[in-house]
Amino acid sequence: MDRRSGRGAGRTGLMGGTFDPIHIGHLIAAEAAMEAAELEEVWFVPTNVPPHKPQPRTSAAQRREMVELAVRGRAGFRVEALELERGGVSYTIDTVTALQEREPGREFHWIVGTDMMNDLPNWRRIDELAERISFVCLGRQGEASGESALPKSLRSRIVLAPMPPIGISSTDIRERRRAGRSIRYLVPQPVLDYIGRNGLYES
Ligand SMILES: Nc1ncnc2c1ncn2[C@@H]1O[C@H](COP(=O)(O)OP(=O)(O)OP(=O)(O)O)[C@@H](O)[C@H]1O
Ligand SMILES: O=C(O)c1ccc[n+]([C@@H]2O[C@H](COP(=O)([O-])O)[C@@H](O)[C@H]2O)c1
């Protein structure tokens, strides 16, 4: 426990995502969560197979590489690849259980955009998950918070974090690439270079 702030030591944010590809919306969300929830670190957790959406367009290795490139140089940000190493469908409860066993000294906080916050009641073993961790939920463009619609037990485990609305999604970036349009500045420069070098999302 940090005696000055009253916060537990090792406060760690987990930013889970398909990251197909990672974009500046993810990075700004992680930064905002870090500030609002007083996190010491944020670990980016690329999903192997997402539970609630279609299979990624690119390989696990490519998505991991892009996330590595995006966080390089930002102290406190790093990639945690346990879902890719575990394989199969990436349920958050399995990930959190494994991390808590591996890192008993840390306090974990799962970071989600508001769209995902509204979906939380549908997550696998959500009650157990909400007992293990709290959620840091970021405001996302065009979405009302919807927090009041959630069960009270879940609401009490949610910290809302403000962020400037960033109307960018990986879907939009993939569509732009397919249409031959620019994605410059929507992703960090090293990620832009990687996507171009490897001809990703062209078809
Ligand atoms: N622009 C954004 N602002 C805030 N949060 C975001 C933004 N884009 C994604 N997120 C959040 O980041 C996490 C990972 O998102 P994900 O990798 O699925 O990106 P995405 O842009 O939503 O992808 P896709 O368009 O392929 O569905 C989710 O919690 C999502 O809500
Ligand atoms: O565990 C679940 O049931 C669950 C359901 C939907 C999403 N998640 C996690 O939420 C994170 C964001 O999901 P996505 O689909 O936006 O990439 C990612 O880490 C997913 O594994 C987890």
Automatic annotation (TrEMBL):
<comment type="pathway">
    <text>Cofactor biosynthesis; NAD(+) biosynthesis; deamido-NAD(+) from nicotinate D-ribonucleotide: step 1/1.</text>
</comment>
<keyword id="KW-0067">ATP-binding</keyword>
<dbReference type="InterPro" id="IPR014729">
    <property type="entry name" value="Rossmann-like_a/b/a_fold"/>
</dbReference>
<keyword id="KW-0548">Nucleotidyltransferase</keyword>
<keyword id="KW-0520">NAD</keyword>
<comment type="function">
    <text>Catalyzes the reversible adenylation of nicotinate mononucleotide (NaMN) to nicotinic acid adenine dinucleotide (NaAD).</text>
</comment>
<dbReference type="GO" id="GO:0005524">
    <property type="term" value="F:ATP binding"/>
</dbReference>
<feature type="domain" description="Cytidyltransferase-like">
    <location>
        <begin position="14"/>
        <end position="176"/>
    </location>
</feature>
<keyword id="KW-0808">Transferase</keyword>
<dbReference type="GO" id="GO:0004515">
    <property type="term" value="F:nicotinate-nucleotide adenylyltransferase activity"/>
</dbReference>
<dbReference type="InterPro" id="IPR005248">
    <property type="entry name" value="NadD/NMNAT"/>
</dbReference>
<comment type="similarity">
    <text>Belongs to the NadD family.</text>
</comment>
<dbReference type="GO" id="GO:0009435">
    <property type="term" value="P:NAD+ biosynthetic process"/>
</dbReference>
<dbReference type="Pfam" id="PF01467">
    <property type="entry name" value="CTP_transf_like"/>
</dbReference>
<keyword id="KW-0662">Pyridine nucleotide biosynthesis</keyword>
<keyword id="KW-0547">Nucleotide-binding</keyword>
<dbReference type="InterPro" id="IPR004821">
    <property type="entry name" value="Cyt_trans-like"/>
</dbReference>
<protein>
    <recommendedName>
        <fullName>Probable nicotinate-nucleotide adenylyltransferase</fullName>
        <ecNumber>2.7.7.18</ecNumber>
    </recommendedName>
</protein>
